[in-house]
Write a structure and sequence with these properties.
Layout (H helix, E strand, L loop, with lengths): L6 E5 L1 H6 L11 E5 H10 L5 H17 L8 E2 L5 E5 L15 H14 L3 E5 L3 H9 L3 E3 L15 E6 L1 H10 L1 E3 L9 E6 L5 E7 L4 E4 L15 H11 L5 E6 L5 H15 L5 E5 L16 H8 L1 H13 L8 H6 L3 E3 L2 H4 L7 E5 L7 H8 L7 E6 L15 H9 L5 E6 L6 H9 L1
Parallel strand pairs: 1-2, 1-5, 2-4, 5-6, 7-9, 12-16, 12-17, 13-14, 13-15, 15-16
Antiparallel strand pairs: 3-4, 8-11, 9-10, 10-11
Helix pairs in contact: 2-3, 2-4, 7-8, 8-10, 13-14
Length: 434
């Protein structure tokens, strides 16, 4: 490497928590880890959640690299970069910046390297840390290996204005040839230019045809789709050939309600899956369920109340002998609630899995969950990428939006962005104005 042009990337702790092997993303560069990052990883490794697992994975990787040389002098990695661990602090602190905070020590390590004439980039998922780095004259960047452009996020559908003859042919034949390039399983809203009615079809990339989406107006467990996007969602949810469905939308668009209703129908009426497994992240509130008293279900009831609210709404409008109340469904294991913490070690065959609030998961966590799917399992992830509780994730770097972009066009995956709130006029207005 040319020492005059090589870039030096100083990695913050939270980058490892986001992606344990993040150092492998920086090719033909100098990758520097301040000693205080190791101190923080050492503290986090005792945690039982995803942070602890990622910290331990990062430490193991560093230990393996240490076997190939002196980390203080630099170790060559497979990607062509040199990895170093430094512990330097400046003799004179800029603006008397306190060294009592670990974050400041990490920043000051980058500051020292910059003063040595190196082309330093401070990499952090922490916005405040990046702002402080900028104040110190450092070039601060987010870790963007798994980021997507939220403004151009795949919507899962497109619109096309066609003639009445085209729509008639689609309805009669059930499919039409379609020359426009689309993603596999992308839905198309055909608008009749004569009368502005809408007919929905789904694109098959293998045959370059659009197949008519049938039964999109019918109800599922008493839940009836109220707009075109909900009809598309229901079509994807009901199709057992699609193993992964992502539903993105603001509050009140019906993501969770449609997913639960479909899951119950598939399990209780169609017997297509053994049970509905529902989970949602509990990390954003800062404590594992072990801090709460009671059995697992009693603990989870606090975190899962939005799920029970949707379930009660379904049961209030749909009568079935095996669906009298939520307690009966839980007792018969037709529906199961589980903490994401405990899904990691399980193999989950023949289940209809719903992961709610998935925007609060990192790409690494989403990978962990999806990789748990056993034979015959369908996974549905729902969330609003603009409502994120994690301090180190945003609308572009969370696991849900990353999954949408990575899986678009895959034969066994489908996606739809729900845009219209159907909860109430007040909820719709609040989502737009607040």
């Amino acid at each position: 490497m040319d020492k005059n042009t090589v870039k030096t990337f100083v990695i913050d702790t939270n980058v490892f928590i986001h992606k344990p092997d993040a150092i492998m993303s920086f090719r033909d560069s100098e990758v520097v880890i301040p000693l205080w990052v190791l101190e923080e990883l050492d503290h986090l490794k005792t945690y039982s959640d995803e942070r602890g697992r990622n910290a331990r994975a990062a430490i193991r990787q560093l230990d393996e690299l240490a076997k190939h040389g002196n980390l203080n002098e630099g170790v060559k990695m497979e990607n062509g970069s040199i990895l170093k661990i430094v512990m330097a602090l400046p003799d004179v602190l800029p603006a008397n910046l306190s060294t009592e905070k670990m974050d400041n020590k990490i920043l000051l390590s980058a500051y020292v390297l910059k003063n040595e004439g190196k082309k330093v980039f401070f990499v952090s998922k922490d916005i405040n840390a990046r702002v402080k780095a900028t104040v110190l004259g450092l070039k601060a960047v987010d870790y963007e290996k798994q980021k997507v452009n939220i403004t151009t996020l795949y919507k899962g559908y497109r619109e096309a204005v066609v003639s009445s003859d085209t729509i008639t042919h689609l309805k009669v034949q059930g499919a039409i040839e379609w020359k426009e390039q689309c993603y596999h399983n992308e839905s198309i809203l055909f608008r009749d230019k004569e009368n502005d009615t809408v007919t929905i079809g789904r694109f098959n990339a293998g045959t370059s045809t659009v197949t008519l989406t049938e039964n999109t107006g019918g109800s599922v467990c008493g839940i009836k789709p109220l707009n075109d996007n909900q009809r598309i969602a229901l079509d994807l949810l009901m199709d057992s050939s699609i193993s992964l469905v992502t539903l993105v939308g603001k509050a009140g668009t019906g993501k969770t309600l449609l997913a639960i209703a479909t899951g119950l129908k598939k399990v209780i009426e169609d017997h297509a899956y053994a049970r509905v497994l529902v989970s949602r992240p509990i990390v954003p509130l800062g404590k594992d369920i072990g801090y709460l008293p009671g059995t697992k279900n009693e603990k989870l009831s606090h975190w899962m109340q939005p799920i029970f609210d949707n379930l009660e709404y379904i049961l209030s409008s749909y009568k079935h002998q095996n669906m009298k109340n939520a307690d009966q469904l839980l007792a018969n294991r037709l529906i199961e609630i589980e903490a994401l913490t405990y899904i990691r070690g399980r193999s989950l065959p023949n289940q209809f899995i719903i992961i709610d609030e998935a925007q609060n998961l990192s790409p690494h966590e989403v990978k962990t969950i999806v990789s748990r799917a056993g034979d015959g399992t369908k996974i549905v992830l729902t969330g609003d990428p603009y409502q994120i509780d994690s301090p180190y994730l945003d609308s572009s770097s969370n696991g849900l939006t990353y999954l949408v972009e990575i899986f678009k066009g895959q034969k066994i995956a489908g996606h739809i962005t729900l845009e219209k709130s159907e909860r109430s006029a007040l909820a719709e207005l609040a989502a737009e104005l607040l």
